[in-house]
Structure formats: structure tokens, C-alpha cells
Amino acid sequence: QKDPDYLKLWLDSFVSSYEQFLDVDFEKLPTRVDDVPPGISLLPDNILQVLRLQLLQCVQKMSDGLEEQQQALSLLLVKFFIILCRNLANVEEIGMCSYINHVITMTTLYIQQLKSKTKEKEVADQTPIEEFVRHALAFCESLYDPYRNWRHRIAGRFLSTVEKSRQKYKPASLTVEFVPFFYQCFQESEHLKESLKCCLLHLFGAIVAGGQRNALQAVSPATMEVLMRVLADCDNWDDRNPEEVSRKAELTLKCLTEVVHILLTSSSDQRQVETSTILENYFKLLNSDHSALPNPRRCRQWESRFIALQIQMLNTITAMLDCTDRPVLQAIFLNSNCFEHLIRLLQNCKVFQGHLDCLAVSTIQALTAVMHKSPAAKEVFKERIGYAHIYEVLKSLGQPSRELLEELMNMAVEGDHMAVGILGISNVQPLLLLIQWLPELESHDLQIFISNWLRQICCINRQSRATCVNANMVIRIIETLNSHSALHCTCAENLIALLGSLGSQSMGSEELLQLIRLLRTEEPKRAHPYVVPVMRAILAMARKQGMASALQYFNLYHSMAGIAVPSIHKWPGSAFSFNAWLCLDQDRVDPSMTTKSGKRKQLY
Fold this sequence. Notes:
By secondary structure, the chain is mainly alpha-helical. 58% of the residues lie in helices and 0% in strands.
């Protein structure tokens, strides 16, 4: 306490001994070290009080400007606290002291200084100041995300609820200074380095991922305003590094995903911001007015960047919906008019000249995510938007790519379209859309690819055939076959074979009449090219063998399906019997259920 030089020497020695714990790069996973720094009880007596006074002196002298020696001491103190917090047993006590408030005060002043220097275009070396800021933010992370949950998250590793429950030590309580600090840092942020903005976003993500209590304190109207402002700024790159700007957008979107997930696990009295408010602002930004273009000289560049940002935002919707409370979040999305926003996005994007297909693919992915395994969401989409409308919108974008068509196939099975035999039909409407689109496709290869896949997925079992028949797919196929001049012969044969398979399940008189009319030609003596394949299809419909010929049956496919009979008030005699055939189709496998115990139907 009486010898500052000795104190600095001791701190230098301590930091050098445990330097491997100074993992201040948020982008890297924490390195595993067998040793741990000492507990507070093993440190010299009154050392924390001495260091608090030293830090306070640095804060008090900052207004006049710190000398080089004091700058070095303040950095050394922050490094010491980071190391101390890597022994997780120390986190709570360090968090209760005033160190963090002093460090935040200094960091605020330093960031203001960095912004001023950039504004005035000073070329002086700012490395020492930047180094302090990075270490200060890493110190905050050590307090509020001691297990580095956020770093694991951005590296693609998601911790389960069980893993989180095993985390013995809790993060320190978030200081009330954080929200004003975070908000202040992003005022006039165009004068702040993109890499430092990324560090600030990393810290916000770490606080939200570190624990629910701190997360709900950090997620406020002010911080949400900052995130939306940062996101809106990501289409305006100027002379900044494109990779850093793209990374900033990615981190902001990951923060918003984490925020949405944490809000879902909280009660209304705990939240300062509602998820619906966040989504409202999110969709408003997603559908920003394209007419407000910047300098015409950079118009094409801006266009490309803005579409890239929109694609990132659409992909984030899918990430948001990948959570345990998915049905609850789907309902919030529906109440936020998400379908209308997404369709409007496709309609508005026609003013752009490139990347339309990528945008359309991401939009379909987002729509699929909102409707995933939700009959209510599918019905809402049919009523509010309708597949006829989305077909017209997609068609107006020009010839579709294979990727876009495959995404519609994924929408139909709510998974990977290549997993035929594993995934069945979850949403039949995209299949009808694909059949309707076939004559419009200029690529014969695409026609053959789509029709072949349709033939496989629709005929895979009785359940799939019944679903397609109930959706009037037979009529849709006949309407498509009427445009036979635009269809490749292999595509037409696939559709007719599909029609025969569905017709063996059920074929009405009107449908049969339409099929026969299809074979009419303007020249009476010239046979229609479909005569032979259509006759084969009709013969296949008429050919009935075995139990597959049953046309009337109860479909007990759904897990909650059953047959309820009214109670018998008066028995016909002493007893009665009931006879029925039972057909057990092979159940399709749900990949999400493979780890859980199997289920079985019970007969009583």
C-alpha cells in the first residue's frame, strides 16, 4: 500500500504467472487449463482494498489525462481481475465490489476519446487505449458469463438445460451502469472501430447467455433500440471493412436470437420488452423502403449489401424458431403478421436486379420455419395469403432455380426433401404448387427432376396417397397435363403414373371424365400422345388385389387419433361383437423422435 513500485512489480509477476487465463478474444473458445488461479483468501491481506484505491485514483485522474505509467497500471489491474475471475469461486465476491463500476467509467471515457480522435482525424497511435477497452470488456464477460456460454454458442455448440443446471457458480449480479454504458458506446458509433463494436456486441450476448436474471435486466428498450440501430447501419459500409461489417450484422442477429429465447422463458412481470415489440421493429427493418437509396454512384453496391442483410435476417427467423417453446413463439410470429411481411418482402424485392433467387429461397425457409408442425399456422397462411398468391409472386420473379424448387419440396416434407421414405408429406399445398408450375419451367431437366420426386413422395404409402387425393391433386395433375406441349415426355409420363397411383386410391366421376377429355385431339385420325400411358394408368386403377382394395376405412395415423363410440344404454341381448379389418401401414420415422422411447397404438 505504501510502495506503489512494489505493488506494480507484484502485479506484473502475478499476471505473468497466469497469463494463459487472459483469453480476451471473444471469437475463440476458452482454452482448457488444468491449473486455476488462487482463491481470494490465498491473496495477501487487504490486497483487494489496495487495488480498489489504485483503480479509484486512475478514475479520478482520467479527466486530466492519464500518464503512460498510470495507463499501464490500470491495464495491469484489469488483467489481474480477469485472471482472478477465472477461478469461478471468486466471481461473486469480485462482482460485489466497486471494481466493475470504476472499470466501466474508465472504458466509457476511453471510448469517447477514441470516437473524438477518429472524428478529428488524428493519426496518433490509439493501441494502448484500445487494448484497455478490450480487456475491460473481457473482464465484464468474466463476471457475467463465467462459463463462457456465449462463446460456445457462437462456435455452434448449444448447451442443453441439463448442462446449464450443472453450472455450480452463478454469474455476478449485473451492475446498473451497464445499460447506460452500452447505449452511450453506440452514440455516434460511426466514429468507433467495427472490431470494437463487435466486442461490445459479444459482451451483450455474453450477459444474455450467462444467466436469466442478468439477461432480463440487460434486455431493455434502450438496448433493443441499439441493436436495431446497429442492424440498420449494416447496409451502409462506406470505406469500412466488409467482413467486419458482415460480422457485426451476424453478431447482432445472434444477440437478438438469444434475447427472443430468454424472453420466452420469462414471465410478463419480469420482462421490460415484449417479444412482439422486437418482432414488429424487426419486420419493419426487413421491409425498409427501397426508394431511399444513397448516392446513385453506389446504388448497385448498396443493393447487394442490403439484400445480403435481408438474407441474414431471414435466416435468423429460422434460428429464432429453433427452440423448446416453438409453438408459443410461432403464435407470437403469427400475431405479428409475419406472413404478410414475408410476402411483401418478395413483392418489393422485384425492384432489385440480382440475388432475387437467394432472397426467395431464404423467404421460403422462413415461411417453412413458422409453419413447422403447426396445423394452425398452415391454416392461417392459407386464409391470409393463399398458395395461389405466393405462386404468382414467385412466378413474377422469373424462372426459378433448382434451389428454390427444392426449398418448396422441403416445405412439403418439413425437412430434407431427399429423405424420401423417412419423411412423409406434412404440407401438401407446396406439392400442388409445384405441379402447377411444371409447364412454366423452361428447363426439361427440372421438369423431370420435380415430377420424378413427386411420384416418389406422393405414392410412398397409403397415408401419402390419401393426403394427396383429399387435396384434389388428381384434378391439378390433369390441368397440368392439358399443357402437354410445354411438358417433356418423361415429365408427362411421371405425372400420369402418379395419377394412376392416386386413382387407385380414389377417383371420382368428374375426375375420370376430365381424364378422358384430355385424350381428345383436333385431328380425329391422330392419336393423342398420352393414350398409351393413360390407358395403363386406368388399368392400374382398376386392378385391385388383396387388402389394399379397401376403400372405406378410419385413418388413425395421428398420435391422438381414435374412434369414440357412445355409451350403450341398452345391450342387445347378453353381449355383442364387433368385427373389423386392421391395416398397419409402416410408420414413417420422425428424426426428432429417434432418441425418445417409441410409442405404440393400443387396441382396447
